[in-house]
Structure formats: structure tokens, C-alpha cells
Amino acid sequence: MTALGKLFRTTAFKLSIAYLVLFSIGAGLVLARVGARVKEVLDEQIEQTVDAEIRALSEQYSQGGLRQLASAVERRVRAPGGSLYLLSSHSGDVIVGNIEAPAFTPSGGTELVETTYERRGEPGVKHPALLRLFLLPGGFRLLIGHDIEDHEVLRGILRSALGVSLFWLVLVGSLGGLFVSYRMLERVDEMSASARRIMAGDMHERLAVSGAGDELDRLAENFNAMLERISGLMAGLREVSDNIAHDLKTPLTRLRNRAEAALRAGSNDSEHREALAAVIEESDNLIGVFNALLMIARAEAGYSSDHMAAFDADAVVRDIAEMYEPVAEEQGVRLDVTAQDGLKITGSRELLGQALVNLVDNALKYGATGSDRRIAVEAGRVGDRVEIVVSDRGSGIPPSDRERVVGRFVRLENSRSRPGSGLGLSLASAVARMHQGALRIEDNAPGLRVVLSLPATRITAGPPARIERA
Amino acid sequence: MRILIIEDDNEASEYLVKAFREQGHVAEHAADGLAGYGRASEGDYDVLIVDRMLPKMDGLSLISGLREQGVETPALILSALGQVDDRVKGLRAGGDDYLPKPYAFSELLARAEALARRRVGPKGEETQYRVGDLELDRLSHKVTVGGQDVALQPREFRLLEYLMKHAGQVVTRTMLLENVWDYHFDPQTNVIDVHISRLRSKIDKGRENPLLHTIRGAGYMIRDGAR
Predict the structure, then answer these.
(1) CB B108 within 8 A of CB B116
(2) Is the ipTM of this complex over 0.90?
């Protein structure tokens, strides 16, 4: 397609043309209406004038007969203005007047008739006029009327105004349309070029934002945010596959070694059994790690929205706390729960439950091992967010490690000896992000304070939503 | 019980058939969706074990097809997809239970038995359960041991209720987590264990033949130990 063809096919250009046509029709209609109205008003004026003249002249006639009428007409003929008079006898002889006989003689009546006339001394030049015939006794005829040449002039002015305005409208409109389309096309072409570069593999390329804050900018900003997210996901994916390769090899090697050792050395049945049990346990751990990774991937990829539902976060908090309370008690840990009622959030109850299990489990494993064995689980509303806090009074995490510890498979030095996959906090963080929230790791002075901050679902006032039939 | 295993992986299905037979059940095998659909709609089985991804007809279509035909044989879906939304889809299609791969055979067995039991069991839910001298009244929420009231927390009550509903059957930890707590994630094993041991201390205290048993490598079972 040629560059011009492309320009003509842009939405902006088509829109300009459509508006141009609409405006032209509008301008035409307005001017036509004005013209018609002006003519109406002027005609009315003439009619009134002619009526008045007829009244005055008929008065003259009734007072002084034809002679007085003739002299009155004579006087008026000499006065300047566009009034036309012609008093003629029955045989057509002109008695007095300022016009020749008109092309068309109106029959007697109250109607003004539009016709043409010739002025005295200017034969052959026709002028437009409105005339009315007045029949007098004795066969005398009085034509009274008004020149309407200036009406034609006015009409001409209106017509040319229409022409000129249409000309400018079309000129400015199409030039403007072309300009806008050109600008638009230029930016869209630029974006397309960026998109092609991105498709070709340059994931750092971004769409240009002009800064005008218009709809194209908004589009570009959103696309850029999307690209940012895709890059993030891709980086995450790469990191995960690296980590999986790295971290799963260790337990897989262990698994293989155990099986091999059992095959080689074990001759009696109970040794075999023991080795097999160990192998199963090791594979269960591996499966657990896989499941956690898959769940993180799912949560990060975003959950399909038809499984996102509004639920009470406080109920989940109470559930999980209740689930862990006996475990804590057995370890000599006090588990305190405080949760506000009706903390509605929208998302996955299951995943929030899993995230909380991970946080509480972490607190029990790493936070409540010292002398102050207390864990607090709190849930409440902070502004438009629901914050769920799990805090312990253990040794905490140094500020330098707080960001790192959320990463997958990250296990801090002092915890490597204890069981765990290093995925608990990553999962909790992925769940938070999936709910458009965040996971914060803070100092509980002393101890660790992990905050799940999630957007609260706005509860609409009024009657509760209807329950759909199952 | 009679079990139909619809699974295209030969090794896995052979293993399952063998394992179910060792447990004294009758197990048959269909290798693709269409064959499985035909046999399930004709034969009289207590439980169907259906792999989700099958050649010729996928597991979910198979189950929803059977349900449309009025075949109500309980179906357990096996799937490599273990996420919550996959489970929901499976249950929506008419499945009765969902087990992600890889699974422990003991888990599959316990769930299959629970499904089969549900089928032959009485239509209406019982309001009272009794195992030995342990009695649970679901309406009044009362539990008595030898006529003596036992005070239970609400969750302990639901735990005992579920165990007694499946008295004589193995109940796994994930089954308890799903049915008593209504969560479907991996339990940290000892969480359920601690709840069980609390419950045990209330109902089996000082008993010579305890009612609540731990089945190693599988889960728990409540049964009258005296018999």
C-alpha cells in the first residue's frame, strides 16, 4: 500500500471526512434556513407597505376622485425609494407611474405577485418586483408594488457566504484530517516498529510515550506495563528452571544413592524395606517441592478469574491458627490470634490458606526456638487493605537478607540444617502478588514480622447480593 | 469392591490392578476413554478410577457423558494437574473425588473405599454414630464414652464425626484436611497428627483396646478394638 493510501485508510482520516460531510450539510441547512426566513420577513414588510399605500391612495381617490389620485401618485413617483406605481386607463394608456407595463399583470386581489418590470426610459432591462393590482371604477387600474432587486443581492450574499464557508471548511477540515492522520499514523507506525523489534527478541525495547497523555500514550503505557510483566515472568521462569536444575539434583542424587546402596549391600529383607521407605520419603519431598513450584508458577501467572471469589480472610486466619494451635502448644509456643470480623477479600481462599500455613510454619520452625516462644497472628483492616501479620520474637532476619529471602529456594545459613524447601516465603509472596497485594518482611524488634497486605473488597451498601441458584 | 481403572499408561494400570487385587478387590482395566466409557456404562462397578488425560475421549468428558446417561457410579479422577481450579473443574464435570499424581497407593485405596462405601451405604445420613462404647449424636453435638459426656472442641467434633462416618475404613491425612478443614493443600503431616492425638487423649484415655488407630504409612482408622 502506498504511504498516501495508508494515510487515507486511517481511522482519523475517515473520521475527519465523515465530520466534514456532516458539517457541510449542517452549514448548508443553516444558511438555507436564514435565507428563507430573510425573504419571508422582507416580503411581509413590502406587503405592509403596499397595504398602507393602497389605503392612503384609496382615501385620496374617494376624496377627490381620479384627479386627486393621479396627483398623489405623481407625488409619490417623484419621491425616492423602491416603490412602484402605474395608473392606467381602461384602454391601457398610462396616466401616471414610474414603470412600464409589467411582463405579467396580476389580476385584481389582495395577493402580491412576483414578476418583472421595466423602468421608464430603460426598456429591455427587467427588474424583479412584487406587484399588486387595484381595480378602480371606470376601468382604471392602479398597480402598486416594490422593487425587490436588493432581495436578490441579499440572496447572492448568502449563497456566496455558503460557498466560501464550505470552501474553508473542506480545506481546513481535510488538511487538519490529513495532519492528524499523519501524526497518528506516524506514532502507530513507530509502535508497530517497536512491537516488531520486541517480537524479534529485543525484550528491552519499549513503546514510545509522547507525554501528551492521550489515548495512544495510555495504550503505550499499558503495553509497556504488560511487557514489563512478561519480561519479569520470563526472567522468573529462567531463574526457576536454573534453580530447579540446581536444587532438585541434590535430592535426586540422594534418592539414587539410597536405591543403589540398598541394591548393592542390603541382603536381608528389613534392610531393603528400610531403604525403600527412605526412597519413598525422599520422593515425597521431591513431589512436595514440585507442587510448591507449580503453585508458585500458577499464582504468578495469575489465577483464572472465575475461581477468584470474595471470602472472609479472617475466617481463613482463624482456621489456620486453630489448625496450628495444638502444634504450637506441643512445642511449648504460645499462639495468639486476633482477627477483626468481616475482612472480605477477593481471591483464592485455598492459596491464602496455603500462604498462611507457610508463614505460621516458618514462625514455628525458625522464630519460636529461643527463650521467648510467642507467635502472634493478627488480621485487620488498614485503610483499604487487609493486613495479615504473623510475628514471632525469635532472632529475626537481618535487613540485608530480607529481600533475598523471598526468592525461590533461598535458605539462610542458620536454617539449612533444618528441613524445608526454601519455597515457603516465595509462595506466600506469589500469593500476595496474585491478589494485587504484597508481602513485607519487617523487624518485630526482636523477632520477625511478616505482613501479607492485600486489597480489601469494597463492600457495597444495601441488601446482600442475591444467592444464585445452584 | 469392583473397580474399573481407566488409564492409558500400561505400567501404572498394571500396578494399580495388581495392588487392588492384593487388597481383595476386583479390578478391571480399560486403556482408553472410549473403551472405558463403554464398560462403565454397561458393567456394574462400585468405583471408577479415571485418568484425566486419555486417548480417544478425555476423562472429564467421559464422566460428564456417564452422568448424562444416568450412570451414577462414583468416579475418582486421577490427574497430573493438581491445582485447585483443576480440581474444581473435575468435580464440576461430575467427578466425586480428585487425586493429583503422583499419589500414594494407600491414599487412592482409602479414597476409593470411601467412595464405594458411600454408594452402598444407606441413602439418608445417619444422625448417630456408634463405635464400641463411643457414641456421637450429630444433632445434639454430644459425644459420650461409656455413657460419660466428653467435651470436644467444634473442630474435634467434626474430626471425630468424619472418622466415625468412615468407621472401619482408613482415612488419610489429606482426606481429613479436605473434609474437616475444607482445605486442599499439602498438610504439614504433623499438623493432623497433633489434632488426632488430642482427640485420642479424650476418647481413648485409659483404654486397653483403643478405638482410634494409626495406620502406618496411610492414615487413621476408628474401629471397635475389642472385637
Answers:
(1) no
(2) no
